[in-house]
Amino acid sequence: MRRQPRRAEREPTVALINIVFLMLVFFLVAGQIAAPVEPDLRLVRVEGAENAPPGDVLVVHADGRLSHRGRPVASAAAHLAALPEIERQRVRLMPDRELPALRLVAIARELTRAGAGTVVIVSGTTAP
């Protein structure tokens, strides 16, 4: 009686391809749902930093103007005062690339003095 040769076990590559495809579709849809950033804002580039998607941030323009959700803000302290208590614990700033660093530091200090728990700088890593 002859022994039948054993077939090599096949790896489930089709299932892996399906999972990768579904992840691709998910990220494409999730990227379209995110709120758009103001069009005249050029983000700071940081190499090797972990990205967080922009959310409810205080935007600092190149000339030092502040805006929140497209509306002008009088000052960083006024923005903080308008936030609910829970959101004051972690305030996110999104500076324009052309904003002088001294102005950014001054705004961060103003937020801290006004009672912000943590001030986080949100940056982008996209090419100009």
From TrEMBL:
Localisation: Cell membrane
Topology class, membrane: Single-pass membrane protein; Single-pass type II membrane protein
Residue intervals passing through the bilayer: 12-35
UniProt superkingdom: Bacteria
GO cellular-component term (any): plasma membrane
A UniProt-annotated Pfam family: ExbD
GO molecular function term, any single one: transmembrane transporter activity
GO biological process, one term: protein transport
UniProt keyword annotation of Transferase present: no
InterPro entries reported for this sequence: ExbD (IPR003400)
Alphabetical keyword list: Cell membrane, Membrane, Protein transport, Transmembrane, Transmembrane helix, Transport
Main location: membrane
Similarity remark: Belongs to the ExbD/TolR family.
Protein name in the entry: Biopolymer transport protein ExbD
Species the sequence originates in: Meinhardsimonia xiamenensis
Top-level taxonomy: Bacteria, Pseudomonadati, Pseudomonadota, Alphaproteobacteria, Rhodobacterales
